[in-house]
């Protein structure tokens, strides 16, 4: 099998990374694609109390185990299966279960800080950045974190002001310059998605 095509998708929290990845997936053969969420590589925090876990800065690159992710990408590129960690946002901790991932033709890496690590950038064939203004991202995050991640209005606001917003401007947004394609998520972007899918098919040699 040809070495997998690696696609890295960055962008601020709630900018629409997951949504854009779904749009790309809709145009590819699902059996050929695997998604790896950078969130699943947050460091294990079993030794910390819940009070201490909520004080962690999850928007700083040091909160993620990139050594493990890089070794997993290397493994997939060599044709080996990996056991990907899984993460629980409600407990702010890694889950006990892992997820077996077999090498596929296309591997999509997705996360706010995925383009901060030069090793991951170098392993990626296509780098994307999903862009959306801060206000809209905050509103979408507030709705999502209350509905899906067990948060209160106050906790989302506190976290946003203390870490999410400053870290976005310090660590996430500057990685936009590494992107091959910037996708605006406040406007139609179906042409951008079509171009990305064509490029993937071109690399896979399926564009004839
Ligand atoms: N273009 C859009 N219009 C309206 N809502 C959107 C759009 N894109 C994403 N959303 C919603 O915003 C929230 C965050 O999007 P998501 O794709 O999960 O962001 P991310 O993966 O970057 O955190 C989700 O509830 C999603 O359904
Ligand atoms: O335990 C955790 C781990 C992460 N977060 C927040 O998640 C977002 C990243 O996820 P998106 O889906 O891209 O929004 C990041 O901004 C962290 O603040 C958390 O709250 N708790």
UniProtKB/TrEMBL annotation:
Q: What are the subcellular locations of this protein?
A: Cytoplasm
- Top EC group: transferase
CC per GO annotation: cytoplasm
**Residue limits of the Phosphoribulokinase/uridine kinase domain?**
6-185
The family database entries (InterPro entries) matched by this protein are listed as: P-loop_NTPase (IPR027417), PRK/URK (IPR006083), Uridine_kinase (IPR026008), Uridine_kinase-like (IPR000764)
Extract the Pfam families matched here: PRK
Q: Is Repeat given among the entry's keywords?
A: no
What is the protein's major site of localization?
cytoplasm
One of the GO BP terms on file: UMP salvage
GO molecular function, one example?
cytidine kinase activity
Q: Which Gene3D superfamilies match?
A: P-loop containing nucleotide triphosphate hydrolases (3.40.50.300)
In terms of superkingdom, the source organism counts as Bacteria
The protein's annotated catalytic reaction(s) are: cytidine + ATP = CMP + ADP + H(+); uridine + ATP = UMP + ADP + H(+)
- Residues involved in ATP binding: 11-18
Which pathway does it operate in?
Answer: Pyrimidine metabolism; UMP biosynthesis via salvage pathway; UMP from uridine: step 1/1; Pyrimidine metabolism; CTP biosynthesis via salvage pathway; CTP from cytidine: step 1/3
What CDD domains is this protein classified in?
UMPK
Going by the UniProt record, its keywords in alphabetical order are: ATP-binding, Cytoplasm, Kinase, Nucleotide-binding, Transferase
EC number(s) reported in the record? 2.7.1.48
Q: What protein family is recorded?
A: Belongs to the uridine kinase family.
**Which PANTHER family does this one have?**
URIDINE KINASE (PTHR10285)
In terms of HAMAP family, this protein maps to: Uridine_kinase (MF_00551)
Q: Which NCBIfam families match?
A: PRK05480.1 (NF004018), udk (TIGR00235)
From the Swiss-Prot or TrEMBL record, give the protein name: Uridine kinase
Q: Which organism is it from?
A: Acholeplasma brassicae
Provide the taxonomic classification.
Answer: Bacteria, Bacillati, Mycoplasmatota, Mollicutes, Acholeplasmatales
* Gene coding for it: udk
């Amino acid at each position: 099998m040809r070495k997998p095509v690696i696609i890295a998708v960055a962008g601020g929290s709630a900018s629409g990374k997951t949504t854009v990845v779904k749009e790309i997936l809709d145009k590819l053969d699902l059996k050929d694609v695997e998604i790896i969420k950078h969130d699943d590589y947050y460091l294990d925090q079993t030794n910390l109390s819940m009070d201490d876990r909520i004080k962690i800065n999850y928007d700083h690159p040091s909160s993620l185990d990139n050594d493990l992710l890089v070794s997993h990408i290397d493994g997939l590129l060599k044709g080996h299966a990996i056991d990907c960690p899984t993460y629980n946002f409600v407990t702010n901790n890694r889950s006990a279960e892992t997820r077996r991932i077999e090498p596929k033709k296309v591997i999509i890496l997705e996360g706010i800080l995925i383009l901060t690590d030069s090793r991951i950038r170098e392993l990626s064939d296509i780098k994307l950045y999903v862009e959306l203004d801060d206000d809209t991202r905050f509103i979408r995050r507030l709705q999502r974190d209350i509905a899906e991640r067990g948060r209160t209005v106050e906790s989302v606001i506190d976290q946003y002001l203390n870490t999410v917003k400053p870290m976005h401007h310090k660590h996430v947004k500057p990685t936009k310059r590494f992107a091959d394609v910037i996708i605006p998520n406040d406007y139609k972007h179906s042409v951008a998605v079509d171009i990305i899918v064509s490029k993937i098919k071109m690399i896979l040699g399926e564009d004839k």
